[in-house]
Amino acid sequence: MIKHHYIRLAQHLTESITQGSYPLGSLLPTEMQLCELYGTSRHTVRAALNELQQLGLVSRRKNVGTRVVATEIRTGFRPTLASLDDLVQFGAEHTRVVQSAEPVEASGELARLLACQPGERWLRIASLRLQDSKRTLPIGWTDVYIAPSYAEIIDEVRAQPDMLISTLIERRYGRRIAEIHQEICACTLQDAAMAQALQLPVGSAALKIVRHYLDAAGQVFEVSVTIHPAERFSVSLQLKRAESSVHPEFSQ
Fold first, then answer.
1. Which CATH number fits domain 84-251: 3.40.570.10, 3.90.1640.10, 3.40.718.10, 3.40.1410.10?
2. What tens digit of pLDDT does each residue of 17-40 get?
3. Class assignment of domain 2-68?
4. What is the pTM of this model?
5. Contact 128/141 with Cβ under 8 angstroms?
6. What local confidence, expressed as pLDDT, does residue 248 receive?
């Protein structure tokens, strides 16, 4: 009976979200308020909210509450990152919205990140990543660094938001991607403009993914730095014995 109760509550809350009673970005009533509103136990409310979280409709944070992060149920798309094809599919599933494109001079930490000589100039393309439509909260902010000689690619980057920038470079300039080096680490949002764009307070927990794109000669021609809010993105690893490979997966 309790099981059926929390399912019915989850369905009612889901309908309230998808029909606009709780708009994107709004907070749901507290657990105690929901208990009083629906005349049920806190255990049932928590189970129902967990269902909403699994559907990708809400995120939950201690001392903040339950926030609506999507008004449509996610499809459950969960590709692997075992190949470049998987990364390309991720690009197709998540729309890029360019925020700025400007030349930068690499020095200090940036020069180390780009594995280049201090003083070298690169083009930085800053973008938000959205899942399916602008009705959902951004799932990440990406700074892509490319050689200035590829500056003309920016028009195509804006015109084809569902294609990776590396793919556009490959098609236009013939710079084939041979391999991608990827590093993942935890971080906090420190840039105020980025935090505002992601609709989160400065200091929020996040996941940082750095990718170096190399050609057949082993030279880096693109570097991307993506910041994913902790509540909207996760990485899991499926570990197998030596005869099998490690398959990383990501989800929103």
1. 3.40.1410.10
2. 988 899 988 999 999 999 999 999
3. mainly alpha
4. 0.62
5. yes
6. 56
Q: How many CA atoms are closer than 13 Å to the CA of 152, on its beta-carbon side? A: 3
Give, in order, the Cα–Cα distances in Å from 60 to each of 96, 181, 236.
Answer: 26, 32, 20
Q: And the tokens for 44?
A: 């049932």
Q: What is the DSSP letter of 216?
A: T
Q: How distant, in Å, are the alpha carbons of 71, 140, 196 from that of 226? A: 24, 6, 16
Spatial separation of the C-alpha atoms in residues 214 and 224, rounded to whole Å: 12
Token couple for 184: 């993942």
Does residue 232 sit in helix, strand or coil? Answer: helix
Taking the C-alpha atoms of residue 42 and residue 5, their distance in angstroms, rounded to an integer, is: 12
